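thoughts on these tokens:
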Amino acid sequence: MSTRKLRTPGTSFRTQEPNSTYRLPLQPGARTSGVVAHGLGLSVDGREVLSDISFTARLGTMTAVAGPSAARNSALLELLAGTREPGSGQITVDGHDVHAEPESMRARIGLVQREERLHPRLRVEQALRYQAELRLPPDTTRDHRERVVDQVLEELELTPHRASRISKLPPEVRRCVSLAVELITRPTLLVVDEPGAGLDAAQQDHVMAVLRRQADIGCVVVVAMSAASSLSGLSVCDQVLVLTGRGAMAFLGAPLQAESAMGTTDWAKVVEQVAADPDGADPPRSPRHGRAPPSFPRSGSSGCWRAASSA
């Protein structure tokens, strides 16, 4: 396992601060310190799935996890969401350990899985009202619940569909309803597995734009993307974490910095490159500097490729 730190870019190509759109925080002190993952490792039946994963996601940012193994990408999201215990390492949200304080984390983390879990016969507003009654604190007034539902509908561009049955909605709108369900508690962290699954390019763009807006409002958004057809959506993210086929970190940085670190900004090619060399043992080529010299930073046994610039 690697013991060296991954060198990350000092600044994101996005410099605009999250806007001040009003949200309805239900927990004092929520959304104050973002998400920190340190030294995450996971093994299943003696087989290493994830190795030494560390990154920070500030409030108002969107992070993508990409790589050739959809199972490993999803496993990392499950660790972040608290639905799976890591073998090593720690995750904190708002300064709280996700796995040590599961009860306090329920309202701070939203998880949207790849498979839809919506009741098709319900109307959109019925589904959200039901979730509001189920998930918000018992002393929440009906008027407050309605305000939360109305605001979530507006943020996700679902107001025109509020009276529609879920079964009648286009695929990208159903996906947004799944997002809306998890946003009822106004979480600090929204984790979305394969947001573009089953969608065409235009539908994927719509969902990614909605997620980008949630990040701009102040949420920490983390998505997993593995299908080649969905990788173009990485351009709207603040940072991208690329995993090797064996679950180690290959790249962590802003999308535009992939050129200097990986030799291309074509994410399909980046994933192909990582898939062809799962240990990251062969340093990538750079269009401007040719093959990286032997001193090109790598992360020991995990063969971790680095972003070219650092703070």
Observations:
- The CA atoms of residues 153 and 159 lie 5 Å apart.
